[in-house]
Amino acid sequence: MTAVLAAAAFLLTAGCSSDEGAPPDRDGTASTAAAAPSSPAGKAEETPPAKGSVTVVRTVATGLGTPWGLAPLPDGDLLVSSRDDATITRVDGKTGRKTELGEVPGVSPEGEGGLLGIALSPEFASDHMIYAYFTSASDNRIVRMLYTERKPADEQLGAPDTVFRGIPKGFVHNGGRIAFGPDRMLYAGTGESGDTGLSQDKESLGGKILRMTPDGEPAPGNPFPGSPVYSYGHRNVQGLAWDPEQRLFASEFGQETWDELNAVAPGDNYGWPEAEGHSDEGGFHNPIAQWSTDEASPSGIAYAEGSVWMAGLGGDRLWRIPLKGTEASADPQAFLEDEYGRLRTVVAAGGDRLWLVTSNTDGRGDPKKDDDRILELRVR
């Protein structure tokens, strides 16, 4: 059943700098920082090589408008959400042929808001449900829609059923990434909508990572009883991924100094707005790696071949962060710098393959011929 949660106060505009705009000049260096505890004692893990590689295997699809979320279907095709058009398009994984399934009702695109992350139900083989995170006229919310492939294309997408509402909205910092974890619970990265005070307020849904059941109820075992809040003190989370040991990682936009990759522990405080990047103050969970904001502005992340791969918007590059447990085992390494422009979403495609989605038609990029596109990568 629908879970209706009241939101804290929110702002439609924000005075702080945008996640994805041009930052002021600063020393641009990527660095590793103090990390969370590593894997359980006695658990041997293979350390990936310090230097990796990326090969662009092919361009899967072109001509996409403001693509944001991507969800691979069991047959190898891809579902892609358009932030500004509020549509979901099916892309043939072999030919790249695009079929628009329809517009999602209730979406109110503005600024960084619109139709954002999408995910398949963990029971998709039987329930055929697609989940979507979007900005409405009043809030950010999560809905699910029945997807019936046997019908004509424009009738395949069912009406949205709201499973969670009340996430603060703003012109900026709407979060938007959703993903089902290995525990089959639904996780959502939210932003503080430009109101920095929301991040430290555990009663607010803004500036958090949320964990809930597929029906939108607070998940069993959450750190704050009766609450969907899983971690707090975030500025704007747009990347979620798990490693094979079921450890959660999240990317986070900084304001003017440091973007972050975090190892997420339930109930922990990630510092915003008191801390941006590594902090020597007690009580904050420090990032495992951090970047100047002109080198990253990270959105989606994925785990493959022993590393987290992080798409950079302002940085126009793909970052590789090799891991051992929840620590970076070597310095982050950049790929595809300035080759494809802004990079929005990266999704594991199995083994050494990734799907990568560009974001040059979002109003902040410099679109080239055939933008935006989906690429297939081979990585190690």
Automatic annotation (TrEMBL):
It comes from the Bacteria. Residues 363-380 have a biased composition (Basic and acidic residues). Residues 29-41 have a biased composition (Low complexity). InterPro entries: 6-blade_b-propeller_TolB-like, Glc/Sorbosone_DH, Quinoprot_gluc/sorb_DH_b-prop. Residues 16-52, 360-380 are annotated as: Disordered. This is PQQ-dependent sugar dehydrogenase. SUPFAM superfamilies: Soluble quinoprotein glucose dehydrogenase (SSF50952). Residues 66-364 form the Glucose/Sorbosone dehydrogenase domain.
